[in-house]
Amino acid sequence: MTRPETIIPPEPESPFPITHESRIISGFGRGSSELGIPTANIPITPDLNQLDTGIYYGWCKVIPHVQENDEKFIRKNGNEVIINHGRTLCKSELTILPMVMSIGWNPFYHNKEKAAEVHIIHKFDCDFYGASLKYNVLGYIRPELNYTTKQALIDDINLDISIAKQVLLEKEAYRQFKDKL
Considering the domain boundaries, does residue 1 fall inside one? Predict the structure, then answer.
């Protein structure tokens, strides 16, 4: 499927905004390691499940759980994950940040489970598995697509990030939702 033209309405339209808070869960570990685009995976809520599969944009904020101890988790691929609940994040990483969210099956990877993966548009110094993510979804960029190469997937994700930054930072009707988290 060819990437369709992205049409952004002047302001969020129904069913947006969708606002929720979820614990960040361990995903497949491909965002950072394979694509260079880390994601925070969150459970599919009923509101997210009703959306078409595809790429969305909005604002988010990581909320640490400082009272919880580290835990270890072993992924199916054997890699160990430390769940630190976001305790090591610095103050500047706890601000409201722009994000893109993929909701779907990730056909390039042939997933058997539907996933919600959030790429927070910020360079974090460490992982924050087990923290919570408060977010609002404000709009839709494009449908979920399949790719013939990993580089084509990376290029499209980077275009999604560019579109999200432009909309969220330059359009007041979207920028105002930053203050509503």
Answer: no
